[in-house]
Structures are given as C-alpha cells and as structure tokens.
Amino acid sequence: MNKRKICVVVTARPSYSRIMTALQAIKEHPDLELQLVVAASALLDRYGSAINYIQNDGFEIAAKVFNVLEGENLTAAAKTTGIGILELSTVFDNLSPDIVVTVADRFETMATAISASYMNIPLAHVQGGEVTGNIDEKVRHSITKLADYHFVASESAQQRVIRLGEDPEYVFNTGCPSIDLAARILERPDFNFDPYLKYGGVGSKPDLSKGYWVVMQHPVTTEIQKSRAQIEETLHAVYNLNEPVLWFWPNVDAGADGTSTGIRAFREMHDLENFHFFKNMEPNDFLRLLINSKGLIGNSSVGIRECAYLGVPVVNIGSRQNARDRGHNVLDVNYNRDQIFDAIKSHQQNGKANSSHVYGGGDAGTKIAELLASLPLRFHKTIMY
Amino acid sequence: MNKRKICVVVTARPSYSRIMTALQAIKEHPDLELQLVVAASALLDRYGSAINYIQNDGFEIAAKVFNVLEGENLTAAAKTTGIGILELSTVFDNLSPDIVVTVADRFETMATAISASYMNIPLAHVQGGEVTGNIDEKVRHSITKLADYHFVASESAQQRVIRLGEDPEYVFNTGCPSIDLAARILERPDFNFDPYLKYGGVGSKPDLSKGYWVVMQHPVTTEIQKSRAQIEETLHAVYNLNEPVLWFWPNVDAGADGTSTGIRAFREMHDLENFHFFKNMEPNDFLRLLINSKGLIGNSSVGIRECAYLGVPVVNIGSRQNARDRGHNVLDVNYNRDQIFDAIKSHQQNGKANSSHVYGGGDAGTKIAELLASLPLRFHKTIMY
Amino acid sequence: MNKRKICVVVTARPSYSRIMTALQAIKEHPDLELQLVVAASALLDRYGSAINYIQNDGFEIAAKVFNVLEGENLTAAAKTTGIGILELSTVFDNLSPDIVVTVADRFETMATAISASYMNIPLAHVQGGEVTGNIDEKVRHSITKLADYHFVASESAQQRVIRLGEDPEYVFNTGCPSIDLAARILERPDFNFDPYLKYGGVGSKPDLSKGYWVVMQHPVTTEIQKSRAQIEETLHAVYNLNEPVLWFWPNVDAGADGTSTGIRAFREMHDLENFHFFKNMEPNDFLRLLINSKGLIGNSSVGIRECAYLGVPVVNIGSRQNARDRGHNVLDVNYNRDQIFDAIKSHQQNGKANSSHVYGGGDAGTKIAELLASLPLRFHKTIMY
Amino acid sequence: MNKRKICVVVTARPSYSRIMTALQAIKEHPDLELQLVVAASALLDRYGSAINYIQNDGFEIAAKVFNVLEGENLTAAAKTTGIGILELSTVFDNLSPDIVVTVADRFETMATAISASYMNIPLAHVQGGEVTGNIDEKVRHSITKLADYHFVASESAQQRVIRLGEDPEYVFNTGCPSIDLAARILERPDFNFDPYLKYGGVGSKPDLSKGYWVVMQHPVTTEIQKSRAQIEETLHAVYNLNEPVLWFWPNVDAGADGTSTGIRAFREMHDLENFHFFKNMEPNDFLRLLINSKGLIGNSSVGIRECAYLGVPVVNIGSRQNARDRGHNVLDVNYNRDQIFDAIKSHQQNGKANSSHVYGGGDAGTKIAELLASLPLRFHKTIMY
Questions:
Q1: pTM over 0.90
Q2: Contacts of C90 in chain A (CB under 8 A)
Q3: Domains of chain A
Q4: Are C382 and D323 a contacting pair at CB < 8 A?
C-alpha cells in the first residue's frame, strides 16, 4: 500500500514547537510519509529562524516558501497571505499530498487553509476551537470552517468546534503537541547550558542562581497603536521588582515596532542592571529556563499552555490569551504596572503551581499521527445544522 | 458630519444582481458614500461582463481589480484568490473605507474578506448562513467567522449564523436584495424585448409564444470530474421534453469546461430544433423571461431564491442548492434524466406556484443601507461561547 | 559526468514551433537533460493550447506555470509578467537548471529572462537581434542585454546583437529552428488531412482543390485602438478577391478583442461563402497548408521566416514585421485594402518564389543543442564598449 | 494647458539622493506635476528608510509600494521584482502619468521599467550607459532598451547608450543629480552636527577632530559567497591603520548577510576602539562627513561620483564600480588587505584631489525637468541599426 502523504506547513518558530512531536510521530509512522513545508517567518533569520531547529531535529524539508512581504503593517500582513496562497498552491501541486495540516491561528496559516481547501485536498487543523483576543480569533474559527479534520488541544475547544457546526466524528481532543515536549523536558529539567553564552543577547548578565523571572510580551494586532504604552506598563512593573529578568523580544507582527521601540527607549532611560534581552531560544532550552524560573510574565501562549502542565506561575497581561482554558498557575491582569507588580508578588509567595492536564497529557503527537493514518479522506462537508 | 464610506466588492455577474438594490440604497443614503469595486469575472467579457450592466445602472466605479488567473482548474481558483488579496489590499489602502461589504460565497469573495479583516476594516457579509453542497459551503461559513456584520436572507440563515457563535446583535435578516429586484419586475412583468434580437446567442429560434422552459446548470466544484456526465442527464431529459428551451451557458468555475464540452458535444450529435443558447442576459430581462416561462430547470440559486417570490416552478437538480430554504415552487431531483423529466411534467400539470417571502419581502436593499449607516463600527469580536 | 540540465520555457503556441527541433536535439543529446517548462497561453485551451502538440511530440513536461491574468489589456500584460516571475523563480529553484533558454520576444518571455538572470543562472536567448514594430521590439533587445548566450536566426541579427555590446564569442547564427521544421515538411509536402474535418472551425467550407489563400493577422500592441480598423482593410481586400480563404483567429494579446470583434462584425454583415475560420492548427499541418496555398496574407512572422525557405508568396501588412530580414517571397503593404488587393494580384501572376536561406538551412536545432552542451557556463558579463 | 504628469519611482535610499534635485526641479516647474512613488527598501526602517528624508524635504508621496519579499537571497530578489510589477502597474493605472522616470540600476527598478513600457507609458531612464561589475550591469542596459528617453550622467555613458542603438535625439548628458546636491553642500561644507548624537550607531566614539576615514562596502551580487571574505580584507586593512573610522552598514542585497556577519564577527574578536558603526545618514550630512574626512574606503558609487566633484580621496575596492568613469581622486585596489592599506597610505600623503566635472556640473536636476517638459511623448521606438 502506498503511504499517505501528509504535508505539514510550518510558518513560524512558535508554531514549530506546537507541532514538533506530531512531525516526529508522522515521520516514524509506517503508513505515513511526512512532507514538511517551511514558510514565512520560520525561514527568516531576524525572527529567530525556526529552520535551524527543524534541521537539527532531523527533519527533511520538502519545500521552502518565502512569502513575508516587508512592511510590518496590516497591509503587508494581508499581502503576505496573498503571496502565501500563490506559492503554496504551487507547492501542493508539486507534492500532491493526501492531507494538508495547518497549525493554530497566525494570520498567514490562512494561506495554507485556502490553498488546500480550494484545491480539494483534505485539510487538518491543529489547535482550533480556542478563544483569544486578536485577529487570531477570526483566523482560527475561519480556518475551522475550511478544515475537514480538527485536532484540538482541550475539552472546551472540542466542544466549541462542534458547536461551530463541525461533524463530531471529525473533531478530536488530542491535547497539544507542545505539552508532549514539555513532558519530555520535565523528565530532565536541569539547566544544561549557560543562556548568556549560548544565546548572546544584549544587556546586563544578572546572576540567575537565586532565581529569576522570564518576560515575553507580544503586540496585540487589534490594539497596535497601544503597543508601546502597553509594553511600558510591564517594563515599569518589572523594573520596580528589582530581581533578575530574562526578557524576550516580540514576534514579528504588525505592531512589533511599537513594542520594540518601547523597550529600546526604556533601556536608554534606565539603568537596567537586572535585565538581559534575548532574541529567541531553542524550545527545549526555553522550557528548561521556565521550569527553573520563578515565573513567566507577559502574554505568551506558552504561559497558558506549557506552563499549565509544568506548574510554572504566570502573570498573564491583557487580552491576548483572553478566553483560553487555564490551569491553576495563571493570574490575569490588565496593562497596569501596579496590577502586574502585585500579581508577581502574589506568585512569589505561593511558589510553584500544581500540574494541570487541561492541554493534554503528553501524547498528542502520537494521537495526531494515528488519526492522520486512519481517518477516511474527505474534502466535502456540510454544516451540521 | 462625514459620510461613512461603504466599499462594496462585486466579483461576478450573479453577485451583482444579488446586491444591486443595496448599492442603489447606499448611493442614495444621505449619510453614506458608495465605493464600488468591480473585480474578477465581473470585468471579463467572456463571462458576460457585469461591468456594462453596472455602468448602465448609473454606478460610478471606484476601482477595477483584474485578478482572474486563467486555467479553469482548482489551482487557478486558489491563485486568483491570492492575487485578489494582493490587489484588494492596495485598493482598500487607497479608498480607506469605513466598512467593506462582501457578497455571498463565490471562492474569490474570500479575498475581500481577508483583505478587509486583516487590515482591521469592519466587514459586512451579505447572504451568509445558507447551506449548499460545494466549496461555496466552506467559503460562506468561513467568511461568516471573519465578518463583523451579517445581513442574511432568511430566518433559518439568521439562526445558523447565530449558532456559529456570532453576536445576535450584529446578525440581521434583511431578506435578499435579489428579491427587491424581482418584486420591482413583478409589478411590470410583460415581455418588452425580443431575446433573440437583443442577446444573440446560438441555436434554433423556437417560437416562445406557447410557452418555454429555461435551463441554467452550473458545474459543482467538488464534483468536477462528473460535470460532463451531470449535464448530459439534463440534456437528455430536456431533449425528450420536445418543447422550446432557452439554455444559459455555465458560469466560469473549475469544471465549466466539462459542462460546456458536454453541451457542445450534445449539440453536434442531436438536431436541437427547440433549443436556443444564451451566454447571459441582463438581470431584469432574465427575471421577465422567468416570469413568463413554464419553469426553470437546473441548479441556479435563482430558482431557489427569486423564483420563490415569483412563484416560478423550478426543477432543482443535484446537490448545489442542497439545504437552502425553499418556497413551494421547487421540486428536487438527482442527476437523473428520468427524475428530471418527471419533475418537469409534474410542474406542467400544476402550473404557477404561490409567492413565498422566505427570502424577503422586497426591501432588503433599504434595510442594508440603513444598517450600514447606523451600526457602530467594530472589527474586533470574540466567539459567543 | 552529470548531464547539463537545460531548462526551456515555452510560453505560447508559436514559440513552440520556433523551438521544437531544438527541444528534440537537446532531448537526444547524450550530455544534456531537457527540462521543459510550459507556461502562459501555451497552457490554455482558448489560445489553441500548445500542450497537446507538446505531449504528442513525446516531450515530458517538468513544470506547468499558469500565469495569464485575464483582462486582454496592457495592465494585464504587465501583471502576467509579474506573476510569471513569481512562479518561474520557484520553478527554477526546484529544477536547478544549468542553463535557462528563453525563446523570442513575446512580452511574457521577459519573466523567464528576469528570473534566470536575477538568480545567477546562465541565460540563452533564441532569436534575438531581429527588428520589428511592436512592444516585442523593446522586449527582444532588453532580453539580449540580460542574456549570456545568443542563438540568432540570421546574419543581420548576429551583427545587431554584437553591436548591442555582446561578446561575439557568445553570439551564434544558428538559423531558426522553425526552418528545420519547414525543411522536414518540404520533403513530404502533400496534404494528408482534411482541414475542415480535423480542425472544425466555423464558416463556409470552400473547395480548396483549385487553390486558396491563408490569412493570419494579429493586433499590434502599440496600435491597439486601431486593431479593428486595421483588420477591416484586410477583410475587405480578401472579400473582394472572391477566392477560397482560410482565416486564422488572432493570438491572445492586448488588442485581440478589436481584431476579433472586427472579424465577427464583418461576418454578420457579409455573406462569406469563400471564408472558413480556424482557431489554430498543428504546426506541421499549417506548414503543409501554406506549401499548398497560393500565398499568405497578414502580419505573421511565419510569412517572413518559414515562407522564405518554402518560397510561399506573402503579402505582409503593416508594421509588425517591420525590419526583419526578408526573402524574395514578401510584398510589403500598408493597412490599405487596395494595396493589399494589388499585392495579392501581383503574387497571383508570379506564383511560387525561390527558396531563401536567410533564416537558416534546417539544422538550427542541432546547432543549438551542441552549443548548450559545450559552451562554458557564465552568468556574469560586461558590455564590450 | 494641462501640466504633464511625471511619475518618478524611488526604490532605495541611495537612489533618492541620486534623483532628489530633479524631483525638486520637476515639482517647481510650471508645466510639470510631480507624482512621487516610494517603493521597496526606500519604505523600510531597517534599511534606513528614505521616506523620512523624502517627507522632510517637503515632497508629497502619491503612492507607497511595499514589494520587498524577505529572504535576502536571489530568489527573493526576483520575486520582489515580480511583486513590484503587480503593484506598480496598479499605481500607474491610478495615476495615469504622461512619463514614468526610473532611476539607475538596482534590480527592482526593472519593475518600474517593465510596468511602464508594457502599459505604453513613455519611460525615462536616469543614469543609464554606465559600466559596473554586477547584476546591475545587466539591469542597467536592459532598462536602456526599454526606455524612451535617456538622461545620462557622463559623456562616455552618452556614447554607450547611443552605441546600444538608441536614437541620439533622445539621449542627453544631463550630468548626475547627485552632483547637484554635492555642489550645494560644497558651498557650506562645515560640520553642523555631531554624528554620534544625531545618528546613534554602535561602537566606540573616536575623536574626529584630527581626521577620520569613512568606510562603505556593499556585497557584490555575483560574488555573494565571497562577501564575508571580502569584507574581512577591508576590516583588517582599516584595523591596522589605527585611525578613527566611521563605518556604514551595507545596503540590503542578496549577500548582505555575509557582509554583516563578517563585520559582527570581527567586532567580537577585536577591540575596535577607533571604530564607530552607523546604519545610515541623511545625504547632506553624509556629504559633509565626506568633505571633512581624509577619504572614503569601499565600493560605494558615491566614491566614484560625488567624490569626483568634491575631490575626496577614494580607495575603491573590487569589481563593483568596475568601468565607471573616474575623476583623479580614485585609487582602485583588489580585495586585499595590503593593497587597501597601501592605497590609504598613498592618499594620506597626497591629500585632497582636484574637483572633476566628469559626472556633471551641478545643474542636472534642472536639465532633466526641462527635458521632461519639452520632449515629445513617445513609447514606440526601433533600434537605430
């Protein structure tokens, strides 16, 4: 029997972490052939190219798609998606996959979904059904309505996709593959690298041995004019904390300029002797950094997802993670330096949280591969009501 | 006060008929400024360019967007959409509309929806919430999840959009603007033109004075390999009927080649003395043709929609209009020459059907314009569950 | 030793005829591997798809590139070229050719030239150095300045390319591959098919046994507003001739609408009992048609090129073939019905012309393949003065 | 009388300096209307956005075109050009210019040339006819063959364009507008700003009062694999010099990564107490910096062009400026640290060079505007031999 060809399109560094164990499971599955397409910012150095990690992890790349139109504005985001469709439809034509897999909800994943569904190729969507406050919110549910199979990460996401009129027979709560990765790391959580040495970055090099906080805050697409003001609240709160801080630069997104400018201006105005700034970090190293930290501050989905399983305390700021399911590790606050500061202090008192399986138990990758191998092929569906 | 700028994108001849009275109402509304963009096949002669009707109707065109990539295959449909995004995002940049309106569910309307929503421009969707059997089905609901306002055409559509998680405050059953047009025509239904003279076309010129049937059957995107076989069933059924038939060539769509080839081959094999073939017809003339006909055969949405209001008997073939609401005028049949023939005969016995307001009462255009003028602007939404 | 990979991009039916024997020679050469890319109108049914001929001739197609943007206007020509660059650069990335070959001077061949030269792939240009009156004129010489090797078709073309500052070591007068084809046909010139039966077409079916004329007239890009008036002069002249005429519809080009509309209108106004209209014809059949005709009327380059070798009388109308080298078979006239008529009559008296080798002796394909196998690879050049 | 609409497309910071005085002269000309289009890297912050200078200089921008596809590889350069064509043809459609002006020879200027010439808009080319060692060489002469008017910068360039078969009536040696700018600055050459304060940058802040050198070295497109090795030679030579150095980061181009990486690595390995690194500088300030410097090292065209007029000593490295005309101020060397070092020393002994008018006398902008106002419109040409 011919192996089923499964084409997975990865468009950004964080998406790679969220699908990596599924890629491994597909690659190793006797009935599947993996066609890995790397696209958009996942190819670009200045966003911490995922391509190196991907190659180090031993994956072969079937096609590279450069489709990021420079401009860091909303028009460029639309055009990047348009170019993505032009390019990906050629790629799918060449690779003739049996199923295309699109990951999560970044704006450019829409290109994968449109090319596949318009070409009558069965489309699987990983991590649909969640709720956030962003253009991602529209993109995610819109892709759900184009997708033929749904591999969601939590029970509430499963319920939501079914309420969206999808056939329950094709909606599966596999858990999130990012949790698989976290589970593996949690088995060997010790720090086995020096972050300053391995990742460079800029700023002071505070002593991490007595504990430190991690900050990762991205701009919110629907609030881009406010991105500078928002980051300043966090900067002040963390500055007042007066403890070692490892800060990660934001993703490329419309609005990243405001966030970055805010950080740069703050650096020039203040003597940040406790701050070190990183551009990015290998997922595994980042998880180890989190496990050994006092907690994560910002609006990264890692705080909601991996940190739930890992029990890492999280101060979640603003609307970006909105209505996503949470474990017991999260305190939600507004863009307000006092609220942020107080939440950090509260976590400091309570310490580590209990592990929660709300986003899966560490076997999502295997489940997804198994489903891709066994589900009947379909690209024709009708709303269930 | 500045007028609100309402940008409506029309991408095909049938879409124009479905939005025309709304365009008029927007144009005449004291608080609105109409920005009409004509794109895709609506610009192209060989699909019966809508542009002439549009200009004859007195509308000014703010921008023309050529984005149809030739190829009549599924890859070309995807790429046409990608090019549409590239072009429309430039157009929206130039026109700075307050609201963008996208019509119905043809594949290329997705370009309008993506460009507007990615650029944080409030998006109104006309005719969401319906159910059909096609790629249109995916496109329609996917656009619903990108849209901020919903102007639907029937009560069941309204319920469906709300079940899709949209805020009921922004979902309005306005009825369908195409019914407005039908209502106007029904006031003066007399034939005021000679179709052979005015529209040319090919084939015999059967005498229409003792009644005639109209046929309009498009290929179904998800069944393109079958499009030739499907059209042949209809051809045989109508041929056996032995009555005057006015036949319309199919829309441009992946699969149109199969349908067209089937028709051409049949013409060569048979002496079609009762058949005349038209490329297209002005909407008003087409409605008069229907009102004075014995009935409509095929899978056009006009049969489901306008004919409900007009009481014109319809033989609806196959899956294309699937689960759309119906008046009492429709008999549904499979791609089967006998079933088609029997349904025609049955209609012939019963004659004209009663008018049904299932798709609105003739004031949809006015309602839509009123809503566009008064609704609060928003481009940020969250699923309701 | 690895074979050199030679990627030839064919973008239109007439270009295919002009490169076919070179394709064969490349395919059969022991040191070369042919990568044939078929693009633009060569893929499209309605321009008499070259793809069928290509496949019948036994060529494998390495990639198909759909890049024709519909619109039949000048903007669409520019955009078609832009899309061609996007697509072809992906194709070249995938195929990694050692040399790319671009043929002649149609506007979309510029996409091949830009993609290859910008990607540092050595570029060979076939049929540079000629002179015509059209956008082709700009395109042709512009491509010469991007190309690394020049395979020209006549001595004057060779001199011209060298005067353009190209290194004489890389400029070769191979003759034109279309002459190879003509030479083969001339060995067996007999009509072995019934054109009406094999190619359909529309119009009367005049008796060809007592001689007939062939007409092929394309619009001129720089004179598109005049294309209808221009074709009318030819229509009148040929109509007055009152002899059997086989007329070929124009190429797709900006302005084709004017030409086509002119022909259609003339058909409706006149009873054309001597006219038959063809969409297109296999190159071999077309050559046989010419050999057995009384002559060719219009502005096709076939009249200048193949007909020189074949000795077929040609009435060449207008500026399109401008300053191309001519054999003794050509009479040049303006867009003027009287001049056209008189030239036809003059040919009628003189009959067949002598064969001229101005465009080569029938071995161009072999020469080109030999050069592609032996020339040093280079993509870096400097003007010679 | 209506003013002639002159659409100038600026695609990069250095191109802006090379056309700025012409823009002013067009803007001020009573018979001309300036339509300034800013595109490509000229819009992007990370390449030292020209847009700020443009707006500070009081120009209104008619359209912005984002067309840079990220990737810093050769495929991306091709695709950036393809996207440029798609976008610019829309812009030209909207602006309906009477003449389009394209500047110099960067790869993306080809998009301007193709869009204009394919749309039958008369095209003027500024700075054709020069000779360099790069993809620019192909691009420049290729654009000459598309252009209808030629405004060249030197006598040898004028001769070369005429030898390329252009009509001498349309080839004008206007001199280079960048010289106009240099002439203005030379009237008031005093340093009126603190470069460290005004432009930031990184590195030490050497004392400039006793003299300093300026370095600006870009990667060469046809030698991208060598860009890192090439920059290292310069770094070593200048490091050994042990005098204050102001170093400018390279342009965005395929290969910029190698150059940048080379610089960064050298910085980490050496203690560069005499080096300061700038991203970019306003043209006027940069000229003042040069006038007051000991000389310029690298391969920037400013060294060949403005520095000829200014008499600034230049060490020109490698093939990038190849066969361009030179004043007496230039010493040419290979990518070799010893040659570079020796040339610097030789300049140090000789001091300032004499001013040369090889690239014009400071009135190019006015001459160009005058020609644009008076030349007959034409978009149809034929090679002169």
A1: no
A2: 87, 90
A3: 4-176+360-374 (3.40.50.2000), 187-350 (3.40.50.2000)
A4: yes
